[in-house]
């Protein structure tokens, strides 16, 4: 078996349209490419920002994007509809997913009923288009899981729980309806033993990795702006938790990425 010079990595969740990357986006993407990152999925958080998200994907060949509205954007995105999401999902072949959407009960001032309505509109868009859904859940895993299970029983869809950080019960419920789980820099933190223990027992063919850049920089880059090149640290922590080589976990999570985001063409080395 030939040893790869650099691993083949896929960052399943980052926010390259954010102002944090305005000054040096080209170098950020160049550093990611040199670190072996062959796919970056830049995730839409607000409908009104979709054009800039799509522009990033159109300008860089290794970048893909999604369309959707983060639950914390309820006040900005006041009229979310399945129709609007579906129309934008078909507006460009670089759009490969719906989201991020879901429930965020961390901040108590965001009306929960509106979050639930928006979440349903996104799930329906995923069911209609067949595109996978990217799910954000914070302080709301029970409610999130219940909605997903009910919707899945109506009509199946595929998707991923992004920035998965437990608990084990949530992992089991989501795996049961065929969803993937994406691991962020949290798995690299010293205190995250509980998460590494959960991950050790999860099927690797259902795991993805993500930076969530510019947020959640992994160790040893904590405190700095995060960027897709740092996915190597997350991959390393995953490989250690699973007791496999880094090249293997990189390859498997990339295969999983292509399986889930099946509009992304398979990578051809050039
Ligand atoms: Zn999120
Ligand atoms: Zn995000």
TrEMBL record:
Q: In which residues is a divalent metal cation 2 bound?
A: 136, 162
The cross-references to Pfam families, in alphabetical order and at most eight, read: TatD_DNase
* Database matches in InterPro entries: Metal_Hydrolase, TatD-like, TatD/YcfH-like
Q: Which UniProt keywords apply?
A: Hydrolase, Metal-binding
For this UniProt entry, what's an example GO CC term? cytosol
Q: Where is a divalent metal cation 1 annotated to bind? A: 13, 15, 100, 212
A Gene Ontology molecular function term of the record:
hydrolase activity, acting on ester bonds
Q: Where are the transmembrane segments?
A: none
Matching PANTHER family, A to Z? Answer: D-AMINOACYL-TRNA DEACYLASE
The record's family statement is: Belongs to the metallo-dependent hydrolases superfamily. TatD-type hydrolase family.
Name of this chain's protein: Hydrolase, TatD family protein
